[in-house]
Amino acid sequence: MLRSLYTRLQRLSARDDAVWWMSAISFAESSFFPLPPDVMLVPMCLAKPKRLWFYTNICALASLLGGLLGYALGFYLFESVGRMIIDFYNAQESFHHFQEMFAEFGPWFLILKGVTPIPYKLLTITAGFAHLDLTVFILCSIVARFSRFYMIAILLHFYGPQVQHIIEKRLMLVATVLLVVVVGGLLSFKFV
């Protein structure tokens, strides 16, 4: 089922209205949709390299806005909608683990996990449920989501079509490298 959806999304990336579809996918993925917008972002950037940064910014912004919906689902509608999404993805264990991590590490957990390929919807719903301060949630989401999509854009900018294979096959490794860079950057500000 996911492979079929993946193929359909890649076909959408070739359409004239692809940026709208990518925005919708990016928005929805942050709160309930199963596939990440990378499925469309990568082929769109490869097809039109001059629009790479435009597409990346739109994707990150849509993800941020979708994250606000996920946060609202966790904050206001967890029992009616949020729990249904968690159950649909059979992610009850991850949800409980994320609650513990939010209690222990707070916003740092959101930043660190927000750049990885784990489903961002689980983070946004959990952050809302945990009543993480909305301003803190927004700031952390900006750092996490723009970092995540900029990592892809930078790779596409320098390595072009070869990177699509790397991203699809080694996404966790790529995300880990970005995570090290982001954490290193944040720690450098702390010690300056």
TrEMBL record:
InterPro entries: DedA_domain (IPR051311), VTT_dom (IPR032816). It comes from the Bacteria. Residues 53-154 form the VTT domain. Keywords: Membrane, Transmembrane, Transmembrane helix. It holds the Pfam family VTT_dom. The chain crosses the membrane at residues 54-78, 171-189. This is Membrane protein YqaA with SNARE-associated domain. It comes from Azospirillum picis.
